[in-house]
Amino acid sequence: MENMPYKWLTSPVMLHSSRKHECTMTPEQCAFKYRRWVNWYVADLVKAVLPSTSLLPPSASSSRPTPRAWLTTLAAVRAFSYPDTHIFRWRSPSLGVCILLGCGFVYFSGVSLGAKPYYWPNTDTLSYGDSPPLATRSGYLSLACLPFIFAFGAKANLLTTITGVAPEKLIVFHLFAAWVMFNASAMWLAGVIALVAQAWLTFMSLPFVRHRAYEFFKFFHLFLAVAIFVVFLFIHVDYTLTSWDYIIAMGAIYCTSLL
């Protein structure tokens, strides 16, 4: 089985690739290569700040008596939940959601672009690696968004069951995670088939397209997401470190939404 050739995946196929690596360069060069934020062998361990639904208004209230302090706190939170803005025909999310999304944008931008170098100073005689630090960081941030895209996008999902927040209120996080994933992926053009499918999924989700041809959008959104994007993303990441864990988590979330 180990000697069986795989056209698309590296053989032998495993769940995780190894982190073991021996640096043969000088101590200074090894220290430079293994610095935090540029170390390829722990790149998947970078933690992402996840969107929160705590500032969304609850869809139902409890009939039990509620302490006054809690009511005051809830009222303050709701102050960030209800106000929105109409710009032409577009209705913005609530102020609280905009603040959360803004914090997420700053975080993702900082993690991707804050650390340097963006590219390895490779020469003809010295190679730090084939994957530039910028591509590695943005790639794993992009991959980490995948489970949340499906979690926030499904009509029937655990988040709605747990929080009581309607799926229509969660869709803004689905869109945000999708755009973050696409922009992070586009920082380094690799996995072209998956990236093209992702570009279609992202741009065809714009309101003026989705509202004009919803059935067309719905069919191709599901078809491209499952049949093309996820399949070729699975092949592209090729069990590198823990990359398949995110796809497995996405599959579990999607299957749960079908129950």
TrEMBL record:
Subcellular location, record wording: Membrane
GO biological process, one term: iron ion transport
Membrane topology field: Multi-pass membrane protein
Domain Ferric oxidoreductase: residue ranges: 186-231
Key words, A-Z: Ion transport, Membrane, Transmembrane, Transmembrane helix, Transport
InterPro entries, sorted: Fe3_Rdtase_TM_dom (IPR013130), Ferric/Cupric_Reductase (IPR051410)
One Pfam family hit: Ferric_reduct
The name this protein goes by in its record: Ferric reductase transmembrane
Source organism of this protein record: Ophiostoma piceae (strain UAMH 11346) (Sap stain fungus)
